[in-house]
Design goal:
There is one protein chain. The protein is mainly α. It has seven helices and no strands. Helix 1 packs across helix 7. The longest helix is centred in the middle third of the chain and has 39 residues. It is globular. The protein starts with 13 loop residues before the first helix and ends with a helix.
């Protein structure tokens, strides 16, 4: 696991690739901050900001995820002496990222519909004079379905990502047999990988939150913090890719 923090330096052109990806991450952090806060430094999701945020999510985040998948594909754990990381390519990474996003949504939307149905029953039960038993049952099923969905992705998202990198199929999240087989090969190592992946995800999220919180400060301080946070996010992304790539061995 220690190698996850230094493997990227085995690529002789890593700093050039790091800087290219870092510039993109910095722009992504800045634009997403602007879409959430506008120019006044407070959270404001009006129509214009909402459109920008949606575009950032669909396009910007897809490119980000596409490059992560490209990195995972390029990592060969068995070759310790050298590493050749992919060059950041917006067009190719966007294609991969969009397909990955579609794969994620195909799996998640039906579950969201189920959660939404239970939420509708719970929310409108008093107006529709529904039986107490139905309301209570729906409330329990609502929390249970949300809990199961969150736990499933915490536990199996790394395996899902590996299956997608291997198959490049939009139905990869439904390949349960392959996913569970991948997990069962070495359960102890997979648990360690999942915990590490989860911790890195929280760290990246917190870095973004710091930049969002300080958006109300002076523009110089905000840019400085965003610059620092983007650097940390970029580095942790490379680390996370190695952590996930270990699963495919």
């Amino acid at each position: 696991m220690k190698k996850a923090f230094n493997y990227m330096f085995l690529d002789n052109h890593f700093f050039k690739k790091f800087i290219t990806f870092f510039v993109y991450v910095f722009i992504l952090v800045y634009c997403s901050n602007f879409s959430l806060t506008g120019c006044n430094g407070t959270i404001s999701l009006n129509f214009f900001n909402g459109i920008i945020l949606m575009l950032i999510f669909l396009l910007g985040y897809s490119i980000f995820e596409g490059y992560k998948i490209a990195i995972i594909k390029s990592i060969d754990i068995e070759k310790d002496k050298y590493t050749i990381l992919p060059v950041f390519n917006i067009k190719k990474d966007l294609e991969i990222g969009i397909k990955y996003l579609i794969s994620f949504l195909i799996f998640s939307i039906p579950i969201f519909c189920i959660i939404g149905a239970f939420g509708f029953i719970v929310g409108f039960a008093p107006m529709l004079n529904m039986p107490t038993f139905l309301t209570n049952t729906s409330c329990i099923l609502l929390f249970l379905s949300v809990f199961v969905y969150i736990v499933y992705f915490i536990c199996f998202l790394p395996a899902n990502i590996i299956i997608f990198t291997k198959t490049n199929c939009i139905w990869s999240f439904y390949k349960f047999e392959e996913i569970f087989k991948l997990v069962s090969i070495n359960k102890k190592e997979y648990i360690k990988t999942t915990i590490m992946f989860f911790i890195l995800g929280i760290a990246i999220e917190e870095c973004y939150r710091v930049s969002l919180i300080l958006n109300s400060q002076s523009i110089i301080l905000f840019l400085l913090i965003s610059f620092l946070m983007a650097g940390i996010i970029t580095y942790l992304t490379f680390v996370g890719c190695y952590v996930v790539a270990r699963i495919k061995q």
